[in-house]
Amino acid sequence: MLSNPEWGLNEVGRGLMRAANYMREHGHCKFCSSNNDGNVCLNGALFKTVSFSLHRKCIERLAQVKGIEGGLINKEDGLVEWNNKHETTGEDVISLFEQAAETCRVTT
To answer: How much is the pTM?
Structure first.
């Protein structure tokens, strides 16, 4: 039986999985939301896949999982700084999206 990794996720979790899949398909970049090759950064993947209001909720969840505190702007800046670090890879960002999505499982 095939399973969909988005089953059982709330709206935020589904948005995070869409962002992970988008980056997986289009590639990762740094210092811009997207480049001429179509690669995206953490924020760029969210911009391409979720609404503005859901984007904020996704940033909150990603920051919580990454341990970044403060207001929304501080959280977003912290995530952008992490994305742009030399050692941060696309797989690192995809992994963060997936880890954060897993914290959004709906229990019945």
So the answer is: 0.91
CA separation for the pair 93, 95 (Å, rounded): 5
Q: Would you list the domain boundaries of the chain?
A: 11-102
Task: Mark out the alpha helices in 1-108 (DSSP H runs).
Answer: 11-26, 42-49, 52-66, 72-84, 90-102
Q: Are 95 and 17 in contact (CB under 8 A)?
A: no
More confident residue, 80 or 107: 80
b (16+ CB within 10 A) / e for 15-38: bbbbbbbbbbebebbbeebbbeee
DSSP state of 50: S
In the block, which residue shows the tokens 């919580």?
A: 64
